[in-house]
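anyone seen this seq b4? input:
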Amino acid sequence: MKIGFIGLGNMAQAMIGGVLRNHLAVPEEIYGSAKTAETESKVHEMFGITVTGDNLETARQAELLILAVKPQFLEKVIGQISDIDLTGKTILSIAAGKSLAWLEEQFCAPLPFVRAMPNTPALVGEGCTGVCYGSRVTPEMKEKTAAVLDSFGKTVELPERLMDVLTGVSGCAPAWIFILIEAMADGAVAEGMPRSQAYECAAQAVLGSAKLMLETGKHPGELKDMVCSPAGSTIQAVRVLEEKGFRGAVTDAVITAVEKSRSL
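predicted toks r here
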């Protein structure tokens, strides 16, 4: 399958890496174009793909065309390619807030559209990607597209009305997870631990906790209670977090991210 990427930033690079690791395509079957020649050269050196220097040429070559640009640039990119014959091509957009109906309106054509929202852990093969498929996507192309998305992490198929919610709970979440890790490390440094060790321990605690929940299937509250011994240090720390509004702040952050995604 020939895959084209318009936009070669971090998310596109994560996707290309996953496709190649899972032998879904060879480098010669992957085409890409970016805003700068510097980015194109970098990605070519990393993966050996064909860089075209031209969004139109990328679109012409691709069977699966992935629009990997930020939402504010998507309309301009579509304007560059919408006049060519896109018959037989599936269009996948990873731009937050841009619906399937919006894509069809911009292309002025009843093409097979896919909307996906990956997150940055895809860079290490641990992404969480929400996806919804337009009605014109064939079963064969849906299977191929799902394989591409599965190549860099976990994929969850959702009704489109939940795609903005996915953006809030997963797409944006790495940012505040990193704030959490940084804050945990700061506390350890304040008590004398070297910073490099503090970062490593804090990150491993987050990674291990997530894996424990996913592999056991236990409710997060149950797992929290397992750590909170009576009169112990953990329950005192939890009390401080609750007093400071930790839970509500995280919930509000998710809701704010969802609302912003809907407004894009």
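The chain has twelve helices and eight strands. The chain has a mean pLDDT of 97. kinda curious what u guys think
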